[in-house]
Design goal:
This protein is an alpha/beta fold. Helix content is 30%, strand content 17%. Strand 4 and strand 5 form a beta hairpin. Helix 1 runs antiparallel to helix 11 and helix 6 runs parallel beside helix 8.
């Protein structure tokens, strides 16, 4: 007979030794300015962006995930997955299993996000590091059983921008956080309602520049310069749109033939026909308008990486820029829009980074937004979760002394397994005492 008490102590000691796993690496703050087009720095004086580029790295542009909308694009950045892989396929996605459409009131529910993807804040936590999120989409949601260590959701646009910076700096200092994602809803909003060539848009870019300057100032004041990497990104670009360039689906199909339609939100539409009406609806739409391409789901072009998820509905349509698709068009005051083909230059987004792990004054080749997740993991020395990104181009942004990512994922799962065994040992111990 074995000694249950001795075995229990041995297992518990092994578990605690795994708990002491240390993973090194510098800190990262990922800042997203929504709708910041790749060329917005060209017609505005932006001394702080200029300083960050001179001291760090940039790319001519980044190609966002398709569809080029806020929720799917943001989640692709922090997971390294295309929307067909992470499941957040639209801002107003419909889930046939739930028979529900996401809303601003329900989008903090796990069921919309927890589809198997692992965002950077969970990758960090799984491997012994601490993470935070401020207004970043998905950052206030329980995913894979975890939240970030610290987070603020609700995305209240009235919170002063410098106050957000003060909060995340306090997290780095007081909570010893390793990676934080921070979101601002501009210049997207002014791009929609004032236009890309407006003074309001230029003023907002200046505000973004001031905010970056304030962040760099606070990092310096608090002695974080030697350990803090700043990465500034956006989710998509922006294009001019016009009220007289709308394609109205209900001019071509009978509303009684469809069960659910996602439209009225840019250039992409998805349609769930009623049973037995799939071919009829498709035939009515496929040649309906010269500026709209219509596909059965299985025929969506490979380059979109937008086909292999059940939330992508059976009929898919996309319009040529600047045309947009509606069921019946109702003017909404918008003069700028996005959601178009991610190869369209107006949809490209910004990338600027500076800090101890980046080169100085370096301009890389363009890359994809899904490449940012493996870049984050490399800086933080984390083993990435499975993803669609590539480190090949983005690793050229890093200084030569940035080491390879550590293989600590196995250690994490050893901790989990050890923990389960530890619980079993405690049960044995209880039996031996009884």
């Amino acid at each position: 007979m074995f000694n249950k008490r001795a075995l229990s102590i041995l297992i518990v000691s092994s578990f605690l030794s795994h708990q002491a796993l240390e993973v090194e690496g510098n800190k990262v703050i990922l800042v997203s300015f929504d709708g910041f087009r790749y060329d917005y720095l060209e017609d505005v004086d932006t001394p702080n962006f200029d300083a960050a580029i001179a001291a760090g790295v940039t790319a001519p542009y980044v190609t966002p995930a398709f569809v080029t909308l806020t929720l799917p694009s943001h989640f692709s950045i922090v997971t390294g997955l295309w929307p067909e892989s992470h499941g957040v396929v639209h801002n107003i996605m419909y889930d046939p299993v739930f028979n529900e459409t996401i809303t601003p009131e329900t989008r903090n529910q796990s069921k919309w996000w927890d589809m198997g993807a692992e965002p950077i804040w969970q990758t960090a936590r799984f491997q012994g590091k601490a993470s935070g999120s401020y207004f970043y989409f998905g950052g206030e949601v329980e995913i894979m059983g975890l939240y970030p260590n610290v987070y603020i959701g609700n995305n209240d646009p009235t919170v002063p921008w410098n106050e957000r910076i003060d909060t995340v700096i306090s997290w780095f200092l007081d909570e010893d956080i390793d990676v934080i994602t921070l979101y601002f809803n501009q210049p997207d909003n002014v791009g929609h309602y004032n236009g890309i060539d407006s003074n309001e848009r230029r003023d907002m870019v200046r505000q973004c520049d001031d905010t970056l300057g304030y962040l760099m100032e606070k990092i310096d004041e608090n002695g974080l310069t030697d350990v803090m990497n700043i990465i500034v990104v956006s989710d998509h670009g922006m294009s001019e749109i016009f009220d007289d360039m709308k394609i109205e689906l209900y001019n071509y199909i009978d509303p009684n033939d469809v069960y659910h339609v996602i439209a009225d939100y840019g250039p992409v539409a998805m349609i769930q026909p009623k049973e037995g009406r799939l071919d009829a609806v498709f035939d009515n739409l496929k040649d309906a308008h010269p500026n709209m391409s219509v596909y059965m789901k299985e025929d969506i072009p490979d380059r979109f990486n937008y086909r292999d998820h059940y939330r992508i509905l059976p009929i898919f349509a996309i319009s040529d820029r600047p045309w947009e698709i509606a069921t019946k068009w109702v003017p909404n005051g918008q003069v700028g829009g996005h959601g178009f083909d991610n190869q369209d230059m107006t949809m490209k987004n910004i990338f600027v980074a500076t800090g101890p792990d980046f080169k100085t004054g370096y301009i890389s080749e363009p890359f994809n937004s899904v490449d940012i997740y493996p870049l984050l993991c490399q800086i933080l020395q984390l083993e990435p979760a499975p993803n669609n990104g590539s480190l090949e181009i983005v690793k050229t942004l890093l200084s030569s002394d940035v080491g390879g990512a550590v293989s600590s994922r196995g250690d994490f799962f050893t901790v989990v397994v050890s923990g389960l065994v530890c619980l079993y040992a405690v049960a044995l111990l209880s039996q031996s005492d009884s």
